[in-house]
Amino acid sequence: GGVGSRFWPASRAYLPKQFLDITGAGTSLLQQTVLRARDVVPVSNIIIVSNGQYRDLILEQLPMLDPGQLLLEPSRNNTAPSVAYTALHLKALCPEAVFAMLPADHVIQKQNVFASCLQRAFTYARDTASIVTMGITPSRPDTGYGYINYDLRPNMEGVHKVHSFKEKPNEITARSYIASGEYLWNAGIFIWSVGTILSVFEQLAPDVLRVLQENVNMFGTPHEQAYIDQVYPKTPNISVDYAILEKSENIFTIPVDLGWSDLGTWDSLYSYLDKDINNNVVLVKHKQLIDMEGNLIRSSNPDKMVVAKGLKDYIIIDDDNVLLLFPRAEEQSIKAIRNAIKDAQFL
Amino acid sequence: GGVGSRFWPASRAYLPKQFLDITGAGTSLLQQTVLRARDVVPVSNIIIVSNGQYRDLILEQLPMLDPGQLLLEPSRNNTAPSVAYTALHLKALCPEAVFAMLPADHVIQKQNVFASCLQRAFTYARDTASIVTMGITPSRPDTGYGYINYDLRPNMEGVHKVHSFKEKPNEITARSYIASGEYLWNAGIFIWSVGTILSVFEQLAPDVLRVLQENVNMFGTPHEQAYIDQVYPKTPNISVDYAILEKSENIFTIPVDLGWSDLGTWDSLYSYLDKDINNNVVLVKHKQLIDMEGNLIRSSNPDKMVVAKGLKDYIIIDDDNVLLLFPRAEEQSIKAIRNAIKDAQFL
Question: For residue A179, what pLDDT is reported?
């Protein structure tokens, strides 16, 4: 997960999106992600990779985890070093391991579909020593997502060869992707074995590995954290997409409809959630709404009553010391407003 | 002051308007009222008459008062019993006293004018044994106020005979009042001596006095509160306007422009306060307002930031566990919404 600017003011620097119950489900996105994984693997096989500043928050939200199941990054160096660190850690514990990278700040409605798809991906990744990704069957020409161009012919059990990964397209390109039927949304869910991903790193991003492998004997020992704190900040700041995926040949995808969203914006949260009869998404328990239509209403205070009249297509977010009232269609300008705020108590 | 429904959700049953810093001045309306009186009389001569439930709140807001300066009513029996009780209490302490009744939930901008007018009223009430009221020179045909019809010819020092008191008029009547020049707003500020008001009560509302005078020896003793707790609830529920003022002959008024408002509604608060360049009244310190016009913005949290765009003529009130977003022109329907709420935590 990120640094907490997308769902501001609900998300804050000290409380990014993945730690929020942003959907009103009663659990945070991180908790939902762990619950999903727990249907496929034992809790003891779940590892949380995160910036070290969120350690206490993670253990508070996931009391079933042992502190040893947290891999804490001392600096923000993007996803390639994260993946490499995780693979090296797992290599010390269990060199035969196959693992999945699951972003902790997305939503997935179809839990059963996810679980069976993940199981198939584990099997395929283990049996073929390849990289597997879940490819989300797209429902609209969304310009906010990356796309996967794939071979329509399945080679085995519905697994398809990936031709290439595409950055977020413009509107026209997105429409052509959807029309062709040869594109899927890239949800950032990858499955691979420790051996596979380390050999791909060796081949395509050896500089990342070189920094982390200065002393490989440290992984899996009580000295691992101190070692990582020392070497990790020296890794190149680079995404796994750029370092590995876009250059790799041996990638496969399982097209699947997960009811997935990355919840990138307030508007995408509005789209994702159930509406009342007037198309309002109301995430507060107590309300008196008159002539209200198409609004998203949320408060960090579970006991807050919202009394409102005559608003159309507004985002109404009451969060601790910030109240946001903004037209839903203009939410992209919220980011600039947030970034212009100097006073740290509001960030 | 009242029971806290007019400025809901800022005012609550436990915190009526008079205890609120509703104008953003840094002091409550009660505190402002005491500060005004203190310019004319010593603090030790100030008495607060209130329902007993607000005792602790009053002493908290007015730490310079001795608890003995509070007259606490055990029941809500309207203003005639209040005035009679106050007069009987003062009679025991100082039978020659002249006193003013000052509503604690109004605003007065022109403090100096008020102080000199009050001094003149004290002198006139003492010297002539009559009832004196401050009559507010009206600035518009307001249908929310009662009016005083008075004799334009001053009899002495700008004091005028009152012909009659008028209930809140309709629009046409209010316009005729203003056009005639013979009407003032009734601010509910009355000045009289203990002897004068008690003899008027004896003459026009003897039943009120009879109940309270069951044992006159109790006033001014340590037993006064216990005695009042016992007899006060038996007094007739009647206003001093109806019981005394509308029937009395011997009433005079001093026409005066005090910059007065009874702040009866959110809209009257909006009218009263200073506007920014876009006609917003902004009572929060931290804000980012874009295309906002004619709004009233308030939060009970002094550190709350309000980020808003595109609202026109709205009341935006964030108060503890209630958020109110309502068109200013329709604020009269807020009362019905409040009254329909069952859950006491919001009232």
Answer: 97
Spatial distance between the Cα atoms of B149 and B143, rounded to a whole number of angstroms? 15
Query: Using CA atoms, how far apart are residues B3 and B5, in angstroms rounded to an integer?
Result: 6
- Residue of B100, B118, B128, B107 lying closest to B190 (CA atoms): B100
State the smallest CA–CA distance between residue B288 and chain A in angstroms: 8
Q: What per-residue confidence (pLDDT) applies to B155?
A: 86
Q: ipTM of this model?
A: 0.85
| CB-closest option in B307, B309, B322 to A330 | B309
Portion of chain B with pLDDT greater than 90, in percent: 87
The span from the CA of B204 to the CA of B115, in Å, is 31
Two structure tokens written together for B235: 């007094």
φ/ψ region of B269 (left if φ > 0, alpha if ψ in -120 to 50, else beta) reads alpha
Which whole number is the average pLDDT over A260-277? 92
Question: What is the total residue count of chain B?
Answer: 347
The residues facing B318 across adjacent strands are B299, B323
What local confidence, expressed as pLDDT, does residue A4 receive?
Answer: 63
What are residue B192's DSSP bridge partners?
Answer: B99
Res B331 pLDDT > 90 = no
Q: Is A316 on the interface with B (CB under 8 A)?
A: yes
Residue range B155-210, pLDDT digits in tens: 878 899 999 999 999 999 999 999 999 999 999 999 999 999 999 999 999 999 99
Q: State which residue of chain A sits closest to B9, comparing Cα positions.
A: A307
* pLDDT tens digits for range A100-154: 999 999 999 999 999 999 999 999 999 999 999 999 999 999 998 999 999 999 9
pTM across the whole model: 0.85
Q: What is the 3-state secondary structure (H, E, C) of chain B?
A: CCCCCCCCCCCECCECHHHCCCCCCCCCHHHHHHHHHHCCCCHHHCCEEEEHHHHHHHHHHCCCCCHHHEEEECCCCCHHHHHHHHHHHHHHHCCCCEEEECCCCCEECCHHHHHHHHHHHHHHHHHHCCEEEEEECCCCCCCCCCEEEECCCCCECCEEEEEEEECCCCHHHHHHHHHHCCEEEEEEEEEEEHHHHHHHHHHHCHHHHHHHCCCHHHCCCCCHHHHHHHHHHHCCCCCHHHHHHCCCCCEEEEEECCCEECCCCHHHHHHHCCCCCCCCEECCCEEEEECCECCEEEECCCCCEEEEECCECEEEEEECCEEEEEEHHHHHHHHHHHHHCCCHHHC
Residue type, B105: D
Whether the pLDDT of residue A265 is over 80: the answer is yes
Closest CA to A64 of A86, A35, A90, A93: A35
CB contacts, 8 Å: A288 with chain B:
337, 340-341
**Contact call for A311 and B318, based on CB within 8 A:** no
Measured distance CA(A290)–CA(B255) in Å, rounded: 44
What whole-number distance in Å separates Cα of residue A284 and Cα of residue A292?
A: 14
Rounded mean pLDDT of A229-256?
94
* Residue A302 near chain B (CB below 8 Å): no
Contact B309 A325 (CB under 8 A): yes
Q: Smallest Cα–Cα separation from A346: which of A59, A5, A96?
A: A5
